[in-house]
Each structure stands twice: as C-alpha cells, then as structure tokens.
C-alpha cells in the first residue's frame, strides 16, 4: 500500500508560479514512474506530466509544455511540479498518481490551484 499526499496549491495571479509536492509513504521500497493529473470543474481528469522511476525521462501535455517542470527526489520519496507562467485555464485540482504493477493505481487527495485573471 502506498499513500500519496499533495501540497503546495493555492491562489495566484496570472503569470505567477507555484510548486506542488507529492510525498509518498508506505511501500516505498521500490520506485515507479509517477505522474501529475488535474481536474477542472465540470471537466474530466487530464494528464499533466509524467516522470520515469529514475527521473531521467519526462513527458508533458501540450497544454503545459514549456511552462511546467516535473521532477522527483527519490531519497525523499517526493515528486514535484514547478508551475510557471500560470494561466486561468490551469485552475484545477491537481493529483499525483503512481501505477504499481499487479497492484493498481494510487492517487493522492489532490491540491487546489486557482489562477486569477
């Protein structure tokens, strides 16, 4: 069992920055690829960014590429999402996720990001 806890959300103005964190606890003896998703009101949850187990490979949705940076510190069992040049359309609840083979997907409770125009 793995528990994920997001933090770092808040209210910022357009063009501002936030850094989200996702702390993992529980069965963290192995490391796996992790990802950030987001869900805006009235919309489906969508992919934001993904990072490999070792952190050397990343991928981003077209909506955030060039503005957001995903990273991780495996020694601290923590993943990050640095969000720059935020836009009102980035407003959403942001979730971290880890997919463990033969165990399933684990999600955090989410952290709210609100970008005012």
Describe the protein in words.
It is a single chain. The protein is an all-beta fold and 117 residues long. It has no helices and 11 strands. The protein has strands at 2-7, 10-13, 18-26, 34-39, 46-51, 58-60, 68-73, 78-83, 92-100, 104-107, 111-116. The strands form 2 sheets. Strands 2, 4, 5, 6, 9, 10 and 11 form a 7-stranded mixed sheet that branches. Strand 4 (34-39) and strand 5 (46-51) form a beta hairpin. 27% of the residues are buried. The mean pLDDT is 95.
Which features does this protein show?
7-stranded mixed sheet, 117 residues, 4-stranded antiparallel sheet, mainly beta
Overview in brief:
With about 120 residues, the chain is mainly β. It is built from no helices and eleven strands.
Total helical elements: 0
Specify the structural class: mainly beta
In round numbers, the mean pLDDT is: 95
Shape: globular
Order of helices and strands: EEEEEEEEEEE
Given as residue ranges, the uncertain stretches (5+ residues, pLDDT < 50) are none
Largest sheet: 7 strands, mixed
Give the C-alpha Rg: 14 Å
* Residues in β-strands, percent: over 45%
Question: What distance separates the N and C termini?
Answer: 40 Å
- How many β-strand runs? 11
Helicity range of the residues?
under 10%
């Amino acid at each position: 069992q793995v528990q994920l806890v997001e933090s770092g959300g808040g209210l910022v103005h357009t063009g501002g920055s936030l850094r989200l964190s996702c702390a993992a606890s529980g069965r963290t003896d192995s490391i796996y690829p992790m990802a950030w998703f987001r869900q805006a009101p009235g919309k489906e949850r969508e992919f934001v960014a993904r990072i490999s187990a070792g952190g050397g490979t990343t991928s981003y949705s077209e909506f955030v590429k060039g503005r957001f940076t995903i990273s991780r510190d495996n020694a601290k069992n923590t993943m990050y999402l640095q969000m720059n040049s935020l836009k009102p359309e980035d407003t959403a609840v942001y979730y971290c996720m880890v997919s463990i083979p033969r165990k399933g997907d684990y999600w955090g409770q989410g952290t709210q990001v609100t970008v005012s125009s």
